[in-house]
Amino acid sequence: MEQKKTIHWADQTAEKIIETWGEKDLYTCASGITPSGTVHVGNFREMISVELVVRALRDLGKNVRFIYSWDDYDVFRKVPLNMPNPEMLEKYLRFPITMVPDPWGRDESYARHHEVDVETILPEVGIYPEFLYQASKYRSGTYAQGIRRALEMREHLKTILDKYRDEDHKIQGEWWPVAVFCSSCNRDTTQIDGWDGEWGLTYHCETCGHSETGDIRTLKGVKLVWRVDWPMRWAYEKVDFEPAGKDHHSQGGSFDTSKHVVEDVYGRKPPVTFRYDFIGIKGSPGKMSSSKGKVVDLYDLLRVYQPEVVRYLFAGTRPNTEFVISFDLDVIKIYEDYDRTERIYWGVEKAKNEDIEALERRIYELSQVDRVPEEMPYQIPFRHLCNLLQIHLGDIDQVIAALPGLKPSQEARVRRRAQCAWYWITECAPEDFRFSLRRPGERAGLSETEASALRALRDEVVANLEAYGGESEVAEAIYAVAQRCGIEPKQLFRASYQALIGKDQGPRLAGFLRAIGKEKVLAILEQY
RNA sequence: GGGCCGCUAGCUCAGCUGGCAGAGCAGCAGACUCUUAAUCUGCGGGUCGAAGGUUCGAAACCUUCGCGGCUCACCA
């Protein structure tokens, strides 16, 4: 195992972390975002990227702290399009998001609402970070020392930030590394008037006119500006690894300036990092979600993809490449890919070569919510599952009960997949893919030739359905019937589909008949 | 203006410590009386964006250029 070269990016990153920081008792991996709106799949990429690296480190026997910062002391800058009650929210612009009311009225604040959504769902994909809440950290004076340090280094900070700005964009006039939410009106529309060289900070508010001199250690509204805040927290939490989106990762971007700030001002090396790219969406995550401003979040993903497959999407893709998450026909292919990876892991299928096999195995491990199960999970192709569910009108229990050889220990995953399949077929799949079985008694409008061929099919083939060895034998029998009745096979197929599901086409008939089951088919075809 | 990423088969991409250019899909041929991207078998297909350089050897490393995208300089 040790001899093998590391091929997965998460393991490579873990090695780089150890190489950079040396052997430590505890490695800290950080992630965080501002819950200023729905936390979408793009944000999720950061969380899962960190989580995968955390796992890789732990797999190397390391002790790891995985922190997740909610930057809920940021300003509420604009009302996102997909929010309810925008008029109410409008009134709270310039407030810290943690002091904006929850427009759904469920949680104690706007920020908290988004946080709760994420914290509730993350365990489903096996992500368990330690959450840190920046609003409460700041308001409790936790960072007072760091703030004071920034004030002391004010001129140097200004130099660092100016380094990447061209002449037209140099910081003009007085600059402070801190911003203040007014104690009176809660807005950040304040100006700093002075600092006494120790803990005293004076400001006034341009909105309400409030003016005050407070102690940094107790003045709840003080916070560092972003480009100082981030590096201060790296030092405070001793962060060894934190990735960032491409918006942060460019020369002069916030990661770049933060790197200098953490070294010069807070005396610590910058964390190991990498850049993750954006995620695109293909297809629609549901009929109801086409409204304007809809952003795709983890809930949407989990309605269509079982948790292992969600992880697989991210574990199987290098973070610095852009990729799309599909809700259209590609979903079937993604599931097939996952199943193939699973078969390779369990040695049921051969990979092209050893390198690919090793990579696939690792991707599979990292895709598991918890650990790899003790036995190979029951595999049922997503497409087939969609058909079975439609035959049984979405009754998952019935479908599961009829699966041959399914062990109780394997049931949970199949059930989860079935839930996804049913959601997908009813909400996302193209119309061509959907069907529902006719009820006994319903009759399709068929010509007499078609009806008589159908009768022959019913009496000769369907009546003996279990006698056939395999699907292809059933198929052959169907063709034999067509020939004997002097009807084009195509026409017989059409008639069969019309009789069964009221459409001209459907799933491959031989397998379809078996999937529906002899009794049911006979019941539907009885009246012809 | 600075920086980052990409440019490989018709399409989507893999190939990233340099060692014979790969996969999926599409295409073509054949098979199955074949429907829900039907299935199986076989085949063809690339100046690796361009030019230089390093090297026994470059798609890969270096330099320059072209094209496309993103990003920063206001705020997080």
Q: Give unreliable regions as ranges.
A: none
Major β-sheet strand ordering = 1-2-3
Question: Pairing-aware structural class of the strands and helices?
Answer: mainly alpha
The helix content is 40-55%
Number of helix segments? 21
Largest sheet features: 3 strands, parallel
What is the overall silhouette? elongated
Gyration radius over CA: 30 Å
In percent terms, what proportion of residues is strand? 5-15%
Number of DSSP strands? 12
Q: Separation of termini?
A: 65 Å
Nearest-integer average pLDDT: 88
Description:
The N and C termini lie far apart (65 Å). Helices cover 45% and strands 10% of the residues. Strand 9 (244-245), helix 9 and strand 10 form a beta-alpha-beta unit. The mean pLDDT is 88. It has 528 residues and is mainly alpha-helical. The protein has helices spanning 9-21, 41-59, 86-90, 110-121, 134-139, 144-152, 154-163, 226-237, 254-264, 298-304, 307-315, 330-345, 354-367, 382-391, 396-401, 411-428, 448-461, 471-485, 489-501, 509-516, 518-525; strands spanning 27-33, 64-70, 130-133, 178-180, 190-195, 200-205, 211-215, 222-224, 244-245, 275-276, 279-282, 323-326. A 3-stranded parallel β-sheet has the order 1-2-3. Strands 5-6-7 form a 3-stranded antiparallel β-sheet, with no helix packed on it. The chain has a two-stranded antiparallel sheet with strand order 4-8. The chain is built from 21 helices and 12 strands. Helix 17 packs across helix 19. The radius of gyration is 30 Å and the shape is elongated. The structure holds one RNA strand of 76 nucleotides.
